[in-house]
Amino acid sequence: MSVLTRNEAQTRAQLLDVHRYTVDLDLTTGDETFDSRTAIRFTAHTAGDTFVEIKPETLRSLSLDGQPLDPERLDDNRYPLDHLTPGTHELTVDATMHYSRTGEGMHRFTDPADGETYVYTQLFMEDVQRVFAAFDQPDLKSVFDLTVTAPTGWTVLGNGTTTRTTDGRWTIAPTPPISTYLVAVAAGPWHSVTTHHAGIPFGIHCRRSLAPHLDADADEILDITRACYDRYHQKFDEPYPFDSYDQAFVPEFNAGAMENPGLVTFRDEFIYRSAVTDTERQTRAVVIAHEMAHMWFGDLVTLTWWDDIWLNESFAEYMGYQTLTEASVRAGETPFPDTWVEFGVSRKGWGYDADQRSTTHPVAPDPDAVPDTASALLNFDGISYAKGASALRQLVAWLGEKDFLAGINTHFARHKFANATLADFIDNLATATDRDVHTWAATWLRTTGIDTLTAHVENTGNSWNLTIDHAGNRPHRITVGTYDHSLDTQTGADHLTLRGRFDLDIPQDGTPTTQPGRRPDLVVPNDNDLTYAKIRLDPDSWNTALTHLSGIPDALTRALLWNTARDMVRDGELHPTVHLTAARTHLPYETDLALVQGVLGFAATHIADRYLPPQDRPTALTTLTSLSRDLLRRTEGLTPKDWEPHQDGTRPDSPAPGLRLTAVRHFIDAATQPDAIQDWLREGTVPGGPELDPELRWRILTRLAVLGATDDTAITHELDKDPSATGQEGAARCRAALPTPEAKKAAWQAMFTDDTLSNYLFTATAQGFWQPEQAELLHPYVARYYPDVIALAARRGPAIAEAAGRYAFPAHAVDPDSIRLGDQALDNPAITPALRRKLTDQLDDLRRALAVRNAH
What we know:
Helices cover 43% and strands 21% of the residues. By secondary structure, the protein is of the alpha+beta class. The longest helix is centred in the first third of the chain and has 25 residues, at 211-235. Helix 12 packs parallel to helix 14, helix 19 (712-721) packs antiparallel against helix 20 (725-737) and helix 20 (725-737) packs parallel to helix 22.
């Protein structure tokens, strides 16, 4: 396939204005293909040549201004339009298009629970060409007027309100000018919950088999949607720019969600069919807030070229967390008082990790670094999301929220329904302040890597000095928190209490800051986590933090310190077992569930699985099971009533309701002997609760498969009880996890030879395949992986390449031979750009894991 270059896009944008697409889709023509007819009205400013993109199964006919064109001139995904004359033209294209099973283009899914079929579009980057012909680049915005023919009994959703004109015939209200990648259609026998808010229709939709689960959460989802909508209208001068707001939870979706204007699509795992924690509900709420922010930043004002993807994603990431926190506080009933704790302990680490790999890039890369769409796709990572959001949070701390929002509103007013660049964004911010935002942007957005802020504390008698060594060149405005030991007279427990906080613009020359009084027992730079940097405490403070982590009063401070411990393990400065010991010591007393989940997740997937050598892994798993037992004991005898907020809105000190569920999950995943979890599965419950729902049953069965304590008969029996799509994935995961040569051979063939697995079934199979306990059995597959994955990516495209690079990679083979094989594979000229980036990152992580092992 020919990828679009930036130069080609600029040339085409200078030649054309695109006014209107009239698209007619017929979804009744079969299970493999659908019909697509498109008329594009556009103006050529001068005489010239250009092309239109389409990826058809069959290109039946084309005409330009009524004159037929030769379909045989299609070259890969491009049809040439030669010798255009100045003036207005109409191009018509009639084609048969292929349904996707990989979440790209028009994805088709048949629900194994009830046999119902659903289709939806995901047109990001270059996939609109899989659905209809288009001048496919973000700065050729147009009005889109769609008509859809669907089977009887289906409902059609789109960017605007939809109307059924005859049986099976649906029209979608024309859009305002939007980019091609934002067009959306979702069709099927949806279960819908609808309402109105602020004068526009709101709807939430899912497949019918999930209807009871959507209904159970409908009030929560709609309350969050309304609260965020109202809060954005308090922040932004521009009103919501579209005529409706639908949220469709769709099957086998590759991303978390997609910001299609008027029809946001979400992965339907966000419709919970099994128990989840409050933190997981908060994640769903953040995604809702994130996608709604895109209605303004991304949809109303759109990037001109893909080098500015951060303008979309960093802004929505920041606004999602900040606005949900504000909306929750104002609503008073939603259980998400401070989302930044979860951001700090999970999302921020995603950014830190990406920024320390060889593939790091600036938040706002130089345009020359994104010469085409293939390279643009590589920048959807922790830098464009988490680091960019952290940079914006630091900008707000430095600039002030009032001036920040004033600049944002100027940006919307100047570029609504049009396109903008980084330079436009910074210029608009500069209108609201006397501060030098251009220099700020150069240092924060055009550079790579992480600054390190190292504290040194000196007691001088009646005062104390704080000096911060600043490794890096970015300006940082931080808050320093100071804490002292405090003895609880009733319990005798030693806690830390806040002495005070002060703001500090870190001097570049290392000038100390002097504070009155004796030195505090704990000094925490970046106490409220407002900047993006590695933090290193002075030795006395670090010893105090390690021994009193659970006694620090503020959850955001604890998140910062856990992140510091995480960084130190990854940098070889803290032994992984010290981190595990700290987790075992403090997590049983932790009151913030996001922290428990984040720390346990790092301990399990990084420390136990990769950073410790194989001979130490059983001890690490024993520590994790013991910690899980501690958490289970802590929650024994408690009921949901014990976790309800007090009348004044404060929360009790007892553990969050998801703590027990979190402990059960980690106990299962760390089990080294099957007896206890086999008993749970046989009894259908954990002693003292919870009863096993489908997610927990499949989790137990997967672990039993890894341990060789179940077989295909038991997996088939469980699938008979849960024949849902999730059940199909669970069975695929379990079968791939079985420790037999036959099971591994079958799983490998399904992933790398048959090419019939959908994106989700591929991922489930890959998740089951590699297991640290099965290293000897899996050893021959490490060498097979690289040639097979390169061929697979070339055949099946970017979505499967991403899944194969992420989930099918031998991540537990932490040894020089595995790294050598990977490095050799990167020399293969046949490797696709997306797979090359993924493998490069994975190999960097293997090197880091090996370095951690060798450091101790």
